[in-house]
TrEMBL record:
Family affiliation: Belongs to the purine/pyrimidine phosphoribosyltransferase family.
Subcellular location: Cytoplasm
Residue stretches making up the Phosphoribosyltransferase domain: 39-144
Function (record text): Catalyzes a salvage reaction resulting in the formation of AMP, that is energically less costly than de novo synthesis.
Highest taxon in the source lineage: Bacteria
Pfam families the record matches: Pribosyltran (PF00156)
Keywords from the UniProt entry: Cytoplasm, Glycosyltransferase, Purine salvage, Transferase
Pathway: Purine metabolism; AMP biosynthesis via salvage pathway; AMP from adenine: step 1/1
Name the UniProt record assigns to this protein: Adenine phosphoribosyltransferase
Record SUPFAM superfamilies: PRTase-like (SSF53271)
Annotated EC: 2.4.2.7
Gene that specifies this protein: apt
NCBIfam families: apt (TIGR01090), PRK02304.1-3 (NF002634), PRK02304.1-5 (NF002636)
InterPro entries recorded: Ade_phspho_trans (IPR005764), PRTase-like (IPR029057), PRTase_dom (IPR000836), UPRTase/APRTase (IPR050054)
Amino acid sequence: MLDIAAVRALVRTVPDFPEPGVMFRDITPLVADAQGLRSAVRHLAHRARAGGADAIAGMEARGFIFGAAVAVELGIGFVPIRKPGKIPVATLGIDYALEYGTDRLEIDPTAVTPGQRIAIVDDLIATGGTAIAAAQLMRRAGAAVDQALFVIDLPDLQGAERLRSAGLTVEALMEFPGH
């Protein structure tokens, strides 16, 4: 298994994407590298196991990559948190604020068992809005959600602090400055 420094080295920085001044942290090289991906998943799984997770939830789309893999590594279930209109049965949903406008997350409520300890897993924590909405949605479904795990944290955007204020333990494998 690669150490965190070696996993971090697989994250590509793309300057000025999607707009000037932004340093985009691209996980494509990480997920394309079998040993890097396996190591990132195992590091996240270790933290989820330590937090007592019964299931993993991940947000569409990159949270599906890491969340489902962590669930498989732990031998537990995965709850996909979807964008609107993607689930063919009655859903439970939550609207949340974006910088400009709103968005929505939905789940199949039968995928969550009341009292189930669910850890949220995603690739990156920026402002925290989507992760907070995901935690609220899981809690509405009856889950106990107190842990959020990320591959990357952008601490300058203070998303992890927002999640901590919402009652979540937050861990990331690595941090990058900027936004």
